[in-house]
Amino acid sequence: MDQIAVATFEKDIKFEGFLLARTSDQRTSSNGSKYLDMTLCDRTGDINAKMWDGTVTPPPVGAVVKVRAQITEYNGRLQMKINKIREAQEGEYDLSFLVPCAPYPAEEMYAELTQAVAEMRNETLQKIVGEMLRMAGERLMYYPAAQRLHHAERSGLLHHTSSMLRLARAVLTVYPWLDQDLLFAGVIVHDLSKIAEMKSDEAGNVTDYTVDGLLLGHLVRGVTQVREAARRMEIPEDEEYVLLLEHMVISHHGEAEYGSPRPPMFPEAEMLHWIDLVDARMNEMNGILRRTPAGAFSEKIWSLDRRVYHPHYAGEQDAPSPAPAAQEAPRRPRPDADKAYQGLL
């Protein structure tokens, strides 16, 4: 589609084109008037959008809309002021331009996980992790890792998990005394229960959280899924590695403030927490840099509680680069294709 990418929006430009509605609500202002408040996106990024006409019905979440708008700025952050909006008709747009996607094929990322399971020598962990991947099923191929924060993209859960797995391989070259099977198992299963926590369509757009997700959350549900997988594989629930894996799931947020009722209590659990945090924050920062010009600070990012600076990197253009999903994704070696790559990572 021939239209301006969200990642390259600048203040005062006019925009007419197609975008995907990630959130869509009718709200009431302090003076009692109604307005539309939406998050609209293409595959390069998203932007908050307002339409000050309270008579317009909010488009369904996940719908493609055609808008005519102007890019404004509010509290140092770009915002879209919509003048006209309508739902798009099939055939008017190219969905591949609108859906944020992981930069690598889902099948390739999934192969990295199954390769790690095949490498395991611990039969208990191998059986449990393999069964949990089977329990996740086809939804794992398209599910995002979050609704709005890190890896909020089609196949984002696989992107997050496979990136963490490569980071874990690198960590093991520095700390070879860690239990590789236990660390790999924790990485692969730690967020699988997000599939039960969120409602996502096949485009990777999360419309809401499930009742299960709101009442229990993915940490608690993850523990029950580890135990269920062990039961299915006829592994006693008092087997120590079952308990260790349950602890890794419930402690991977690190602190009670962030949802973990127990802090990590053994080295592999501690390492899982930091690998998870590093990968999530690097993904967020990468997205922030793509929409922030070199030499400028971003708006305050509430999830990081700070602004982020985009340095003048050598050889980089001043304008924000398009998101990786908008380019041809760099090809990574497959898990079984490059032993030198595996040795380094």
What structural class results from the helix and strand content?
A: alpha+beta
Number of helices: 11
Q: Tally the structural domains.
A: 2
Q: What's the CATH C level of the largest domain?
A: Mainly Alpha
Low-confidence stretches: 319-345
Layout of strands and helices, then pairs:
Blueprint: E1 14-28, E2 34-42, E3 45-51, E4 64-74, E5 77-87, H1 95-98, H2 106-119, H3 123-136, H4 156-174, H5 180-189, H6 194-197, E6 198-200, E7 206-209, H7 211-215, H8 217-232, H9 240-251, H10 267-290, H11 339-344
Parallel strand pairs: 3-5
Antiparallel strand pairs: 1-2, 1-4, 2-3, 4-5, 6-7
Helix pairs in contact: 2-4, 2-5, 3-5, 3-8, 4-5, 4-10, 5-9, 5-10, 8-9, 9-10
Describe the protein in words.
The chain has about 350 residues and is of the alpha+beta class. It folds into two domains: about 90 residues, OB fold (Dihydrolipoamide Acetyltransferase, E2P) (Beta Barrel), CATH 2.40.50.140; about 200 residues, Hypothetical protein af1432 (Orthogonal Bundle). The chain has eleven helices and seven strands. A hairpin with a 2-residue loop joins strand 4 and strand 5. Helix 2 crosses helix 4, helix 5 crosses helix 10 and helix 8 packs antiparallel against helix 9. The chain is elongated, with a radius of gyration of 22 Å. About 40% of the residues are buried.
Main attributes of the structure:
OB fold (Dihydrolipoamide Acetyltransferase, E2P), 11 helices, Hypothetical protein af1432, two-stranded antiparallel ribbon, 345 residues, 2 domains, five-stranded mixed β-barrel
Quick structural summary:
With 345 residues, this protein is α+β, with helices and mostly antiparallel strands.
